[in-house]
Amino acid sequence: MALFAVFQTTFLLALLSLRTYESEVLSEPLPLTPESLKVSVNSTCQCLHLQWTVHSLAYHQELKMVFQIQISRFKTSNVIWVENYSTTVKRNQVLHWSWESELPLECAAHFIRMRSMVDDARIPKPGFWSNWSSWEEADAQNMLGHDPLFVFPKDKLVEEGSNVTICYVSRIHQDNISCYLEGVQIYGEQLDRSVSAFELKNVSFIREKGTNVFCKVDQGGVLGGIVLFVSKVLEEPKDFSCETQDLKTLTCTWDPGSDTGLTKQPSQSYTLFESFSGKKTLCKHRNWCDWQVAQDSQETFNFTLLAENYLRKRSVSILFNLTQRVHPMTPYNLLPKNVGATKATMTWKVHSIGNNSTLLCQLELLAEGKVIQQSNVSIKVNGEYLLSELEPDTEYVARVRCAYTNHFWKWSELISQKFNTAEAAPSEAPDVWRNLKLVSGHPTVSLFWKPLSKVHANGKILFYNVIVENLDKPSRFEVLSIPAPASSTELTLDQCSYQIHVTAHNSVGPSPASVIVVSGDPGNEEVEKGRVNGTEDGFSVSWKPQSGDATGYVVEWCDGPQDLPCVLQWKNLGPNTTSTVIRSGAFRPGVRYNFRIYGISTRRMAHLLEKKAGYLEELAPSDNPQVVMSKLTSRSFTLSWKDYSTESQPGFIQGYHVYLKPKAGEQCHPAFEKTVLPEDSVCCKYTIDNPEQKTFVVENLQPESVYEFIVTPYTSVGEGPLDAFTKVTTLDEYSHTLIHIILPMIFCILIVMIICYLKSQWLKEKCYPDSPNPYKSSVLSLIKSKENPHLTIMYVNDCVPDAIEVINKPEGSKIQFLGTRKSPTETEFTKPAYLYLLPTEKNYSGPGPCICFENFTYNQAASDFASCGHFPVTPQAPRHQLGPLTSPENLLKALEQNYMNSLGEIPAGEANLNYVSQLASPTSGDKDSLPTNPPEPALCSEYKMQTAIPLGLASAPPSENSSLSSTTLLGQGEHCR
Amino acid sequence: MLACLCTVLWHLPAVPALNRTGDPGPGPSIQKTYDLTRYLEHQLRSLAGTYLNYLGPPFNEPDFNPPRLGAETLPRATVDLEVWRSLNDRLRLTQNYEAYSHLLCYLRGLNRQAATAELRRSLAHFCTSLQGLLGSIAGVMAALGYPLPQPLPGTEPTWTPGPAHSDFLQKMDDFWLLKELQTWLWRSAKDFNRLKKKMQPPAAAVTLHLEAHGF
């Protein structure tokens, strides 16, 4: 074996000698195999470091060689990388090469080998590869501990947008391992039995504390993880520039962009490097840095700003001349001096730059935020500028900025100062107008004026002076002082003409006077009335030019609706103007505005020229007139709405529509137009095109028919609401005929009644005299002539009562009589029971001569009503009927019997009866009211005209038990002598 | 305001300890210590939520329960119930004191690592409160006549993670620190509640005492 080794060595040496000889002498390339190959792992950068030498080179020989490097993963046959590395090689030189692995090196064993080839131009023939070196293994897994699960790479720092491969190594050889990126499961590729890899593409920054990736064995409690630090990409500084305020210090500024700081990496740092001086400084701030200018008067600077973090460097450079980068400091002490009404002087100071440097300062004057003046002033230290053409009593702002005169780079910051100019007398006369009216018979002028604009007021207006000069009596003046802000006053004048001067006063003095002439005559002259059209812009009012010497025109109007107090407005116009547009924010659609155009004479007196009315926008009427219906007949009726005012409507009333709903099936009258209402009902419409016609007769109607009507006005826009129709029913056709008959009849009756009334005395005398004077009764003559010529008249005064009948009259009792014309049988039951109590029984001296009175007129009535228990007997009644009752026994007997029989029929309250023949009978209602209103004796104490009855007639045969009669009662109650 | 409260609480335990004469005993100190643990418990809930969000998922997930890999040096609050019951007052208080001493030190390290100013402010505030609790426990121990435990030289806990300590493990340690702190606050509340009950004079004795006076 040793012999074999010696032989082999000898052979190789011989061969090498031969090759060397060939290469040196024959200049042929030699295979120089890399030797002493060593591989190390750097986990931080996931790099494999290779180092080797080439021993075969001759001394002092330098050759350019190519090394082909092969890297395999897991096993030598799995080559994942091949790279040719060219370099110049010396003898025994240690060569280095690094390779960064995408897969964390801890997750897989790597194998590396290389071979070489001479690639030098001095060797003309193409070379050939040497033999491969032996495989070198780099296995970082050996460095792991004993944990069951590892995740790699640990705490890696990458930039946003990178692709990162994560892997885990499991020692427990289980499949149920899940990996998560920020709590979201990720899926990868299993590289080995215990190794899986996950590729994260385009990773993004989440938080400074890093992105968490972890793997765990499901339900095993085994967990491993890493934090991946994703840094934002370092940006190149933007807007890098340097400038100086005093030529001593340079201040460089830039926009740093995103902060790339993480807990694993501090924020990027900035370094300023100046190439001419070779100096550099580490900036303390992210976006600016100061640089002290050396005293050696360096004028040109070449700055490089370098930004860097762990992953990247970025730089930006500028080259400039110092004097071209002067940015002066802000001026100071800007003050107004000698401020007048129209002038002011501004003074200010600046910081000096170097020696004898001048600055160009720009002074701007602002009013109400706008620049109105701009001036440039060159100064060294102190600045001063006179501002003129200022407005009195106005607030101004002056501001100043300065720049380096030698080379303009930038304006300094601005310094501002406010100031107010002094007041001046008002520059314009106030705009005055008047309104004339009669108050309690006195001409009264209301003066109005508009506040002066700020431009013309030149200060705060304190009061207005009104001087009233009587033109007819020039010596008389009246001065009124009206404190501001009043804008009107009222003057009571007489019939003279007056010239009124109005001036506005501020603290400095008065304005020019505004003069107006008024006369005591309100001048309600009749002028032309017209209409004016409103547009979106306002009312375009035009008028005829006044022939003569008008010095101007005034258009006057009220801003509000007619029903509100007038806020008088006016507009002054020049003498050559004949039209204008009246604008006001107060104008509203549907409101009538009245405009009056006045011409101003050379005497400054106003004359009314025209009146115009208009609407900004006409609207349809919102209300209908209150219609009064009259003259209703069977065929017509009249409608009237005279109270309807066309002036206060939301548009010019052009007329009226009269709608009439006809009976079903009835056609419209030819004068009407058939129309369909919004609710689809058919209607007849009549159009009245004269707005002043406010009555209308609806004719040709059907009698006894119901019609509905409405009257609605219409404007150019539309008509009023068709909501409340009024119903009307026409009269019966014959009703008025009947009236023609009934009225005369009523008239005739009235005539008769009047005659009767006038002749009532005569009639009374004739028919029913007041006292029962038988001699005056015509009936007497009638009786005398027809029946008993022996009848005489008895005077009441001749009767001497010989007995008093006391009647026990139970309260509320009364006999109900059914009438004298009942049958005798019936009458028996109506006999009064009180007859038992008659005290005349024992004193009865039998029938004696007696004269009774009978009033036939009364009897007739009493026979009907029988209210007094009075039993009337007609002259035709048989005499024998009276007889039996004249005997007390008969009477008692009859009554006893009848009483017993009639108790059940006669109401208890009617059981008593008093007698007496009376003058007048009670009304029939008394009978009905008996149960509750018992008859009072007074009712029965009246007299009647009576007739004397012969005694023989009074003592009728007792066999006749006929009904009771008044005669009987009279015979018992009153015994006449 | 919370800082003022903590300052007051910091000084409170010292008062009864210094004024033992005519004293109401350690009861009020224990009560205040108990109240402080409850307050810190409430404060920690808010702080832990913020800090775990700052660490990111999975540390802020409610069911996250990682193995206690690198947190072995943290004092454990969990203890067998029987062991806990058998602890005497001194040992009980000593364990509390030692635990919070260590936890406070770790917590200050946590504060130094925090990236955001707001988080640093919250952690500093909590550290102040925890310092107050530590002082309160010391006050109770003093009131009961127990000496404070002296730290052994060289065993001062430090917050210097080794180079091999990965950021993920560091986050797990932070997680466990907050979790252990919370468990300790729970345990302390129970400890001081137990002590409080123990220190209360028995009600029957009071009654008898009053009766004796009555007669």
Automatic annotation (TrEMBL), chain A:
Name the residue ranges with Low complexity bias.
953-970
Q: Give its localization.
A: Membrane
Q: Looking at the record's lineage, which domain of life comes first?
A: Eukaryota
Q: State one Pfam family annotation.
A: fn3
* Limits of the Fibronectin type-III domain: 330-424, 429-524, 621-733
Q: For this UniProt entry, which residues form the secretion signal?
A: 1-27
Q: Name one GO biological process term.
A: positive regulation of cell population proliferation
Q: Name one GO cellular component term.
A: oncostatin-M receptor complex
SUPFAM superfamilies given in the database record: Fibronectin type III
Major location, coarse class? membrane
Bilayer topology reads: Single-pass type I membrane protein
Write out the transmembrane intervals: 738-758
What keywords does the record list, in alphabetical order? Disulfide bond, Glycoprotein, Membrane, Receptor, Repeat, Signal, Transmembrane, Transmembrane helix
* Gene Ontology MF term list: growth factor binding; oncostatin-M receptor activity
Which residue ranges does the record annotate as region Disordered?
953-977
Question: What PANTHER family does its record include?
Answer: INTERLEUKIN-27 RECEPTOR SUBUNIT ALPHA (PTHR48423:SF1)
Oligomer and partners: Heterodimer composed of OSMR and IL6ST (type II OSM receptor). Heterodimer with IL31RA to form the IL31 receptor.
UniProt similarity note: Belongs to the type I cytokine receptor family. Type 2 subfamily.
Protein name as catalogued: Oncostatin-M-specific receptor subunit beta
Species of origin reads Delphinapterus leucas (Beluga whale)
Upper taxonomic lineage: Eukaryota, Metazoa, Chordata, Craniata, Vertebrata
From TrEMBL, chain B:
Quaternary structure annotation from Swiss-Prot or TrEMBL: Forms a heteromeric complex with cardiotrophin-like cytokine CRLF1/CLF-1; the CRLF1-CLCF1 complex is a ligand for the ciliary neurotrophic factor receptor/CNTFR. The CRLF1-CLCF1 heterodimer binds SORL1 (via N-terminal ectodomain); within this complex, the interaction is mediated predominantly by the CRLF1 moiety. The tripartite signaling complex formed by CRLF1, CLCF1 and CNTFR also binds SORL1.
* Example GO molecular function: cytokine activity
* Protein's UniProt name: Cardiotrophin-like cytokine factor 1
Q: Which GO terms describe its cellular component?
A: CNTFR-CLCF1 complex; CRLF-CLCF1 complex; extracellular space
Gene Ontology BP annotations: B cell differentiation; cell surface receptor signaling pathway via JAK-STAT; negative regulation of neuron apoptotic process; positive regulation of astrocyte differentiation; positive regulation of B cell proliferation; positive regulation of isotype switching to IgE isotypes
Q: What is its main location?
A: secreted
Q: Does the keyword section mention Transmembrane helix? A: no
Per the record, the domain of life is: Eukaryota
Which family, according to UniProt?
Answer: Belongs to the IL-6 superfamily.
Q: Where in the cell is it found?
A: Secreted
The signal sequence is: 1-17
Q: InterPro entries this protein is in?
A: 4_helix_cytokine-like_core, PRF/CT
| Top-level taxonomy | Eukaryota, Metazoa, Chordata, Craniata, Vertebrata
Alphabetical keyword list: Cytokine, Glycoprotein, Secreted, Signal
Q: What does this protein do?
A: In complex with CRLF1, forms a heterodimeric neurotropic cytokine that plays a crucial role during neuronal development. Also stimulates B-cells. Binds to and activates the ILST/gp130 receptor.
